[in-house]
């Protein structure tokens, strides 16, 4: 069964401290849903074409369905509600290649 992935790119982060509550809640929600964080950061990113060298996050789940369910969970929705105003990110859930 193909794995599922959350892929997030943060084009701009105007209030890094404001992400603290979201990061804590999101981390707990991801872990509870069986997700594993493979990459999180922005200090070592090489961006090409229209790429953005800000924070990039890659999280793996055992299946696409598990990744979608994790996003829709009450715990993750609570984390989303904690995002600061004016926050911008590009977020996708994608199915891996078996």
Topology:
Elements lengths: L3 E9 L7 H13 L3 E6 L14 E6 L2 H9 L1 H8 L6 E8 L3
Helix pairs in contact: 1-3
Secondary-structure content class: alpha+beta
Order of helices and strands: EHEEHHE
| Cα Rg | 13 Å
Helix content: 25-40%
**Annotation, overall tally of beta strands:** 4
**Uncertain regions spanning at least 5 consecutive residues:** none
> Please, how many helices?
3
Tell me the distance between the termini: 6 Å
Write a structural description.
The protein has 98 residues and is α+β, with helices and mostly antiparallel strands. The chain is 31% helix and 30% strand. Strands 2-3-1-4 form a 4-stranded antiparallel β-sheet, with helices on one face.
Provide a compact summary of the structure:
Helices cover 31% and strands 30% of the residues.
List keywords for this structure.
alpha+beta; four-stranded antiparallel sheet; 98 residues; single chain; 4 strands
């Amino acid at each position: 069964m193909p794995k599922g992935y959350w892929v997030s790119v943060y084009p701009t982060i105007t209030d890094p401290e404001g992400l603290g509550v979201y990061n804590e809640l999101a981390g707990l929600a991801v872990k509870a849903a069986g997700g594993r964080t493979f990459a999180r950061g922005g200090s070592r990113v090489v961006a090409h074409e229209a790429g953005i060298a800000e924070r990039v996050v890659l999280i793996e789940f055992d299946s696409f369905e598990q990744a979608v369910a994790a996003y829709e969970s009450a715990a993750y929705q609570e984390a989303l509600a904690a995002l600061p105003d004016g926050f911008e990110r590009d977020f996708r859930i994608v199915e891996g290649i078996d």
